Amino acid sequence: MVDLVNAVTGWNWTIADMQRIGERRLNMMRAFNAREGAGRDRDTLPRRLFDEPLKEGASDGVSVTRAELEAALDEYYRLCGWDNASGMPTRAKLQELGVDSILDIFQGWIGRAAPPGGCSVGRRRDRHPSRRGVS
Q1: Distance of alpha carbon 51 from alpha carbon 32, whole angstroms
Q2: Domain contains 127
Q3: Are 88 and 34 in contact (CB under 8 A)?
Q4: Is residue 57 included in any domain, yes or no?
């Protein structure tokens, strides 16, 4: 993939460069989701995976407990450098990635419930041409 990007763009990126870009993207998406009211409480699995063991295949009979999910989230957040209680990127993590300027935009929203109807900025979903029957 790196060779392809370098060939098309003329840049001289490494795999580490591309991983860093992906990490920045993930953290910026997480901050956006915080503004919309999504946090650790949204990082879950369908109830069915807790209540019904899987059937067939290599996972036959396997189910996930809520405690296992919570432990996995704790470890994932630790590896990401995120706050364990909220699941949000920390200021230190955003500074490390050079995207801490987004805190000015999202700081007031982190931890707040999303406004009715979701995002309060940008294009509304029902205004998109594909939702009006226009191709």
Answers
A1: 31
A2: no
A3: yes
A4: yes
Q: What is the pLDDT of residues 23-65, one digit of tens each?
A: 999 999 998 888 788 889 999 999 988 888 888 899 898 889 9
CATH of the domain at 55: 1.10.599.10
d(CA 122, CA 25): 19
The two three-digit tokens of residue 43, written as one number: 């990082």
Reference 39, options 86, 84, 72, 83; nearest CA is 86
| pLDDT tens, position by position, 62-99 | 889 999 999 999 999 999 999 999 898 988 999 999 99
Q: Which residue has the tokens 């294009």?
A: 123
Residue with structure tokens 């991983």?
A: 19
Helix (H, G, I), strand (E, B) or coil at 89: strand
The whole-model pTM stands at: 0.70
In a domain, 68, yes or no: yes
Which position has the token pair 């500074």? 95
